[in-house]
Amino acid sequence: MTAGALRPYQVGHLTSLESLSLRGIQDLCFLEGLSSLQLLKVGLRDVPKLTAECISQFRVQRALTIGSSVLLSHMLSSESFTVPADLNLECWKEQSFDLEESAKFSSVEELSLYACDMKSLPRNLNCLSSLKRLYISLCPNISSLPDLPCSLQRIQIYDCKLLTESCRAPDGESWPKIAHIRWKDIL
Fold first, then answer.
1. CA torsion, points 159, 164, 169, 174, in degrees to nearest 10?
2. Structural contact between residues 65 and 42, judged by C-beta atoms closer than 8 angstroms
3. What residue ranges do the domains of the chain occupy?
4. Considering the chain, what percentage of its residues have pLDDT values greater than 70?
5. What percent of the chain has pLDDT over 90?
6. For residue 103, which of 124, 128, 126 has the smallest C-alpha distance?
7. What's the burial of 10, exposed, middle or buried (CB within 10 Å: 0-12/13-18/19+)?
8. Neighbours of 177 (CB within 10 A)
9. What does the pLDDT read at residue 2?
10. Residue 107 CB neighbour total at 10 angstroms
């Protein structure tokens, strides 16, 4: 980006835009016209200067990939924002995250964690009453699972040594929490 990168960028005229991914744009502060767009998919990672006002204007219909709890908090601060069915937490540096605004997570059917530094999943994960699929990949610090919602039908755990051990049948610490789940892929 050039020295003028701190100007807002216009996106409202892109009415057929379905997917928007912003990654590694260090100087981007604001996108004008977001509130007029209904996007199917949004990805936000490494956009540290994107303002809370801008982030709260995103309208996401299907999938949200987000790179930090700060960005997610800014979205949740908008009264009209509801987390879409697919929520992907990617490359989070935070040690944990919380589902304080649980009503805004009521439509989440799929939760994916990829390459996150967090040490634990939210204790109140079981409040995600619509959650059907949970994917955890390359999260080496997560060592156990919290109580999971009854709606969960599939769990996949890849390259998470501590969690894999915890979920090992029949005597892993987390095994009783996943034994009833229909589809389990733990590698």
1. -140
2. yes
3. 82-186
4. 93
5. 57
6. 128
7. exposed
8. 19
9. 40
10. 14
Q: Which pLDDT tens digit goes with each residue over 3-16?
A: 344 456 677 677 78
- The token pair at 112 is 């994916």
Beta strands, E only, 50-168: 60-66, 86-90, 110-114, 133-137, 154-158
| String of DSSP letters for 58-81 | --EEEEEEES-HHHHHHHHTSTT-
pLDDT in tens, 140-166: 999 999 999 999 999 999 999 999 999
Tens-digit pLDDT profile for residues 97-114: 877 666 788 899 999 999
CA distances from 113 to 5, 140, 142, 186 (A): 31, 11, 11, 14
| Whole-angstrom distance, CA of residue 100 vs CA of residue 115 | 23
Euclidean distance between CA atoms 153 and 122, whole angstroms: 19
